[in-house]
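Standup notes
- DV: blocked on the single-chain target, sequence here:
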Amino acid sequence: MAVLTNWFVGDENGNIKYVSVVPAKPEEIDARQPHITLAPTSKNLRDGKPGAGVQRLDVRNSEERILVGLKCPILLEPPNDSFLQLSVAYGDGTAATYDAQPSKDKLVVVKEWNEPKFRPTCRYIGLDVRPQSVFSRTSRWVEPDRQTIYRGIFTCTSMGHFRLTRLDESDENTTAALPVRLRNLKMSGSGENFAYGGDEVDLSVWNTERALSGPSVSSSPDTAAGQKRKKSKPTLLYGEIWRAKNVSTVLHNIHRSH
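- DV (later): unblocked, structure below
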């Protein structure tokens, strides 16, 4: 039977389900009806626990992203299990990446780790799976004869703990301390840059490589926990490419014009 769309879904208890939507009446497709009756089905892939809800989820196949977010349609055909890599960040500060095998109703753990500085008031605000991210040959964590960080998982918390976790045998990871009180972080398509928004700055764009090799930001006087960055110092931080200005004023004026 044809599968119209597939979803991975995570909930507040850490359960992960795989949802498929199939035609309830296959003859409607054969007759090319404009409206098709749908029948969703779901299977549980992981039993969670209270206090460790799914906060971020990302899935990739071997070549490109096929899902971002907790609930999103991803494929028009049944997936090949061998190409699905699912990464999840949980509310207790743990994170994991799995080989997803929906056809066998299971997730096979590839690697699990903790964010050491995670606190009850923290939240994961960014997670991105990178089978291959291309940076310069001068990167201190890249082998001299390679241009890629292979099979890496980027995570970031609301307190600015930005981490690249390697999935190879070396167990190498690289961290950066960004400004605190962040609300959302997204990587660019290539992984070369990322952007975040939060209470201190509405929107800021950074170079990933410089952020991971630069000095600590959140420990500086201007960005300590509970403090806002001083407006009298508009200089960009190390690794920061661009920072939005007067966003609240612009939005206010747009609202008034409507």
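- Follow-up: The longest helix spans residues 247-257.
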